[in-house]
Amino acid sequence: MGDVARITEMLLSSCDWCPRACGADRAHGRIGACGADDTIKVARSALHYWEEPCLSGEAGSGTIFFSNCPLRCVYCQNADIAQGHAGKEVSFERLVQMMFELERAGALNINMVTPTHYAPIIRVAIDEARKQGLSLPIVWNTSGYETVESIRSLCGFVDIYLADFKYARSQTAADYSNAPDYPQVALAAIDAMVEQVGSPLFDSDVNGEPVMRSGVIVRHLLLPGHVEESAEAIALIHNRYGDAVRLSIMNQYTPIIASDSVAGMRFPELLERVPDGEYEALLAFADEIGVEDYYWQDGPASLESFIPAFDLTGV
User: Fold this and answer.
1) Distance CA 224, CA 31 (A)
2) Which end of the chain has the smaller Cβ count within 10 Å, N or C?
3) Any alpha helices (H) in 2-118, and if so which ranges?
4) Which residues face 296 on adjacent strands?
5) Which positions of the chain have pLDDT values less than 70?
């Protein structure tokens, strides 16, 4: 714990760990823009079967869902944890134990979900778990709103980056996430991820299916009314990275905001689901520009199964 305390003191006393750079003295209990202080808060630790097939397989991805979030999109599918409503404070030692519990349960990887604001502590926990014999790949499951310095600090600790690229346009990023710098910040972060872990590498599981061991997956969620911007985002990622990343084009948007809320009145488009025709058009566009081997979602993807219960399972 001494090492953890020193790292927390050094890196979070004037926090600039995410692009918000709020300067909060989290090391002494102040709350950052992310909603976190110097403690670790986790809402769920369990096998998850709804990540990309190369991550979940048949066995499941060993997900640890962290509470709070630096980005806080108005339509967030995991709003209960992003806003810190769900979750429980855990010790550094307990975080290490959770990794081993997931490994014993048969997880294909350890999947850190929304970890950015806890990165210094998680990094030490990964190091300790590996010293104790943890052998699974580590997945960094992120909104993409990361600093280059934070990503570089994870070199040697993270094997797989599962990163969103949410917006191609600054105005949309400003409207939905209060982050007009999101497109350029996320691209710089993804650049650093690709530089660090290289192109995707796969093994096979017992059924001969590909299982990712290292690399970058870039997710893009189609939002209602934004099919043109989504096409821009996919073209941008494809032209910039080609086969160096694996694209995941998602159709699981689930309306969660109330029609009489401020967000519902400002952005009525977010009260609707994405029409099937728009998603099919987006996939056709990806095919037309030469994107190969991307992940896509079949059927009514916007089901509650994609949003697990944040009921402290495994915590």
Assistant:
1) 33
2) N
3) 2-12, 53-56, 79-82, 92-104
4) 249
5) 1-11, 206, 299-306
On the 0-12 / 13-18 / 19+ scale of CB atoms within 10 A, 244 is middle
Angle at 298 between CA 295 and CA 300, to 5 degrees: 130
Per-residue model confidence (pLDDT) at position 9: 64
**One-letter amino acid of 28:** H
- What letter represents residue 56's amino acid? S
Query: What CA–CA distance (Å, rounded) separates 305 from 227?
Result: 24
Model pLDDT, residue 235: 98
> Rounded to a whole number, what is the distance in angstroms from the first to the last CA of the chain?
19
CA gap 37, 15 in Å, rounded: 10
- Parallel, antiparallel or unpaired: strands 61-66 and 295-296: unpaired
At 94 the three-state DSSP class reads helix
Query: What is the pLDDT at residue 1?
Result: 44
pLDDT at 308 (0 to 100): 85
Q: Kindly tell me the burial class for residue 154, based on how many C-beta atoms sit within 10 Å of its own C-beta (0-12, 13-18, 19 or more).
A: buried
CA 256 to CA 258: how far, in whole Å?
7
